Amino acid sequence: MIEPLKVLIVEDEALLAMELESLIEEAGHSVVGWATSSGEAVDMVDSTDADIAFVDIHLADGATGVEVAEHFRRSKRSMVVFMTANPKRIPDHFAGAIGVIAKPYTMNGLTSALRYLQEGVRRPPPESVLPAGFTLSPAFQTVWIPTAA
Amino acid sequence: MDWKRTSEPADAWHMTDDLHAEHGKGDPFAAAIRATRMSMIITDPRRPDNPIVFANDAFLRLTGYERQEVLGKNCRFLQGPETDRMAVEQVREAIASRSDISIDLLNYRKDGSTFWNALYISPVSNDKGELQFFFASQLDVSDRKLSEHRMSADKERFEKAVRERTKELEAALEAQTTLLHEVDHRVKNNLQMISSLIIMQRRTIKDEGIRQSLTTMLERIEALSTVHRRLYQSKDVSRFDVSDFARDLISDLLTASGRSEITSKLDLDPIVVSAEKATPVALMVNELVTNALKHAFKEKPDGSIAGSIGIKMSQPDGHLNIEVTDDGVGMADSNGDASFGMRLIKSLGRQLHADIEWRDAGPGTRVVIRMPNVPQQEGNVL
Ligand SMILES: Nc1ncnc2c1ncn2[C@@H]1O[C@H](COP(=O)(O)OP(=O)(O)OP(=O)(O)O)[C@@H](O)[C@H]1O
Ligand SMILES: [Mg+2]
User: Fold this and answer.
1) Model-level pTM greater than 0.80?
2) Is B347 helix (H, G, I), strand (E, B) or coil?
3) Can you tell me the ipTM of this complex?
């Protein structure tokens, strides 16, 4: 068994955050926090020991998800996966994030992405195939799928 | 009028003055020059400052001067403040180099009014090649200049209008694109919320039948979600790649079913349909694949459920062909009373003008769909 992930949810939509939390926990991982704005996210990442944060681009204080990712990268506290209905807003360099789960994801799409990320974070590179609806950043693509680069 | 070939003495033009006195008699050639409606002058470059030594009546009419006012003067009195210096310079150079020149000049009459002069100057030499005089004709082309000017003003106005309109349209397009992104964003978020609501509801339900219904409902909504995710991920929101969709769908449904013994066989040509067909095609394929997963495979004595589901898509002749096959139990035993799923497939089929056939694939079922589909052109909308 690979060690489960500690996840931070950065999402302003309560319903989606709730559902995401349930799915994450059903998959055997734990949720260490839920932030709705960039400020909350920054405070929370410093006070928790999250392995990975699911970050929406649109937050309560605007399109600040990319800034959150930049902060997480600098503080080296948590890895980031974007989760957005607007993947075109993500900069080409992905602000250091692993990749993006495009909304609307399917329940299975998310579960598969969680398994893939668990492998990637704990025992890189991941064994599973890249799930549909999950796009790796160019940087992680070269490391996790060396042949595709 | 070839002056170079005349063998007259150097001051042959004097004859024309003489002839003037006895109009109509003597040299008919000189008489013609006097009488023509074309303004003409002759200048003598051998005298200081190249003065006018002959001017016909047409020249005097055109410029408004008397003959004695112009004879002995250099032509520059025709120039004025608005005359193009560069053009004058060109004339000067042509005279200095004894070459002929044809040029439009803004000239001034005696009364100060202006006219556009299509000036033609050519040097005249004698047999020995010595320059004797310059012959110049003037044609009033003010009308042509005016219409040229109007045309270029019109053209400029028109181009300006086009530039402004283009800018407006570009701004409108950008506003529309922003709006489209915004709406798209909301549609996707809302689809995500609908799925989340169903999943959360399902968690609270103990009854297996109801749970199953909610799962079927979730599958249908997730098929729509996948359409939207794929549609707006592409550069062109007016085209939808059904083969990519099928790949996403089957991997999603298979892993979601948790039945790793069921494999998929895909034979998918890249096929694009217009956006309005995306949803019905996607829903139809979803119904067929979920039916195969749900009904085709029976548990074996050892408890395992094995089998294979195939999707084939091709577009050979202006028709999109979709085949969904399984190697399961077949439909011979099914009582044929179609429930919602079948009705949905058939209605979507009608919407798409599709022919749908369920065939016995021995073993299993082969569903063959054939619908008209115009091959979609490449294009970038977003
Ligand atoms: N691939 C298949 N293999 C075997 N039986 C099938 C297959 N597809 C459909 N059937 C039979 O046809 C019946 C009607 O299918 P239909 O999709 O209308 O209903 P359903 O799947 O039972 O319910 P739902 O309305 O939720 O789709 C099924 O109950 C099943 O018996
Ligand atoms: Mg069905």
Assistant:
1) no
2) helix
3) 0.87
